[in-house]
Amino acid sequence: MKRIGLLTSGGDCQALNATMRGVVKGLSHNLTELEVYGFMDGYKGLIYGDYRMLTSRDFSGILTKGGTILGTSRQPFKMMRVPDEKGLDKVEAMKQNYYKLRLDCLVILGGNGTQKTANLLREEGLNIIHLPKTIDNDIYGTDMTFGFQSAVDIATEAIDCIHTTAASHNRVFLVEIMGHKVGWLTLHAGIAGGADIILIPEIPYDINKVIDAINRRTAEGKGFTILAVAEGAISKEDAALSKKDFKEKMRDYKYPSVSYELAEQIEKKTGIEIRITVPGHMQRGGSPCPYDRVLSTRLGAEAANLILKEQYGYMVGIINGKVKKVPLGEVAGKLKVVSPDDQLVQHAKLIGISFGD
Ligand code: F6P
Question: Packing angle between helix 148-169 and helix 184-192, nearest 10 degrees?
Fold first, then answer.
C-alpha cells in the first residue's frame, strides 16, 4: 500500500499530464493498493489543503493532453518562509497536510523555483521526488526537461511561417522566443528554423554586429533577415551595468520587450522595414510532441520505480540518454545555462549564423 501526493507548480507546459500518467501507471501496475492525492494549483493546494483523491482512471487518456489536470500557480520560493496575509506559516501548513494524509511521498512537477521549494520540503523531512518540467530547459542536473522539445517545435513552426512571408516582402523579421533567463529554446528553434541571427542572454549582443550581419545579407542579394531573439537577450552595454543600474534602466523602459528596442535600433540604422512576432504562451500550449511523451513516460516510470524502492529526495533526470536519479540537494538552486563554447553554438557560428557578438 502506498499513498502519494502529486502537484504541478509554476508555469505549465505540454507534458505535465503525460508525466503524472507515467508515475501513476507505474505505481498502479505494481501495487495492489494505491491512494493518489492531487493537490490543486501547485503549492497553493498543499498549503491550504485543497486536494482531490484521484483514481488511475483520472490518468487515462491524458498522455496527449496539454496543460495540467491539477491546475498550477506561481508560488515564489522566496515567499515560502513569509507567513500569508492571515499569518499562516506556509511551510508548516504544507507539512501538516502531508502528515494528515499519511503520504509516503510527494511527487512535485515543476521548474527551478518549484524545485527549490521541493528541496526545502525534503530538508524539512518529507519524502520528495521532483520531476523537471519547463520549456526553458534550464534545470541543472538533467540534459532535458519535459516540455522543452514541444516548445522548440512550436517556436520553430513560427519561424518557418515567418520565412515564407519574409522572403516575399524583403523585410527584417524578429521572432521573440520564450526561455526566461536562458537561451536554450531560442538556440534550438533558431537553428531548426534557419534563423540568420540568434540572440541569447548568455551571449550579449553588440547592435553594430547585428547590423553588420543584416548588411552582409543585403550585400549578398538576400532580401530578408530573420532574427530569433530570446526574451532575455541583452546588449553588451546592458550586460556591463551593475544589477542596480540595470534595474533603474528597466524602470523607465519604454518598450514592451527587448525585440521592440532592437527593432527600433535596426530600423534607424538600416532603413529596412521591420516586423516583430511574439508567439508567447503558444509555446507552452497544445499537445506534447512524441519526444516529450516518451521522455515524460520514462521520467514518470522511474519516479514510480523510486517510490516502489522507497528511495526519496531525488530529481529524476536524463543524462546522456539514461534516466537517472539525481540528489535534489545537489541541484536545487542551480541554473543550466548555454555556454558560449557549447558545440551547438560553435556549429551554428560555423555555418554563418550570427550571435551579434
Ligand atoms: O518558465 C516558463 C516560461 O514560459 C518562461 O519561458 C517565461 O519567461 C515565463 O514562463 C512566462 O511566465 P508567465 O506564464 O507567468 O507569464
Answer: 50
